[in-house]
Amino acid sequence: MREVRAVATGVIVTHMLRETRVEPSTVLYNSGLGACEESGQWQLAIAMLDEMPEVTLEPSIASYLAGAKVCERGGRWQHALALFGVMRGAKLEMNVISCSAELSACEKGGQWVQALLLVREMWATTVAPNVVSYSTVTSACERGGQWRQTLSLLNEIKRVALEPNVSLHYSASISACGSGGQWQWALKLIDDTRRSKLELDSPTMLESACARRASSGSRH
Known about the structure:
By secondary structure, the chain is mostly helical. Helix content is about 75%, strand content about 0%. The protein has 12 helices and no strands. It has helices at about 1-20, 25-40, 40-50, 60-75, 75-90, 95-110, 110-125, 130-145, 145-160, 165-180, 185-195, 205-220. α5 packs antiparallel against α6 and α6 runs antiparallel to α7. Keywords: Repeat. This is Pentatricopeptide repeat-containing protein, chloroplastic.
């Protein structure tokens, strides 16, 4: 029922803007975009964003975020990243929320290089990456099989005095190292968590699997 109401809201807002004399405003469009986000109507969201300049309105960061979220939710990460590109072209000031949303789209689309570049760009501005930012880019690198990058990110998190999320940063690095055949590194990371008194998800299973693979590799 909630999605039906959200679709109806989005359609009503669009109808009001196109068929009545209601004065268009960014607030009204953002309301419609929010309804699209709830209902997953990514085509309608993109149409509304395209229409805003036609009625002499400039989409805000909130407008682009709502559009990007509904695209990502619908599995259209390419469209989401394209919207972030348009937002950058509009010279809108990025913030942690918009950067985190863009990182999420990169992760969903397997764009680990773009995710890394975005984190570097964040450090070059006043928008410093937080633990969530690093969690997302680490996950993107893990999914891309980039074990070296996950290790580098883990070291970077410690260097900038952020507290690593054990279940995300360490587990992702261990998983990436294991998938890349780097069992010694995986075992070392498990040992690091134990010495630091950190708790991994299913540490015994992870360690056993790594040890078996490392032993198997050494016999070949």
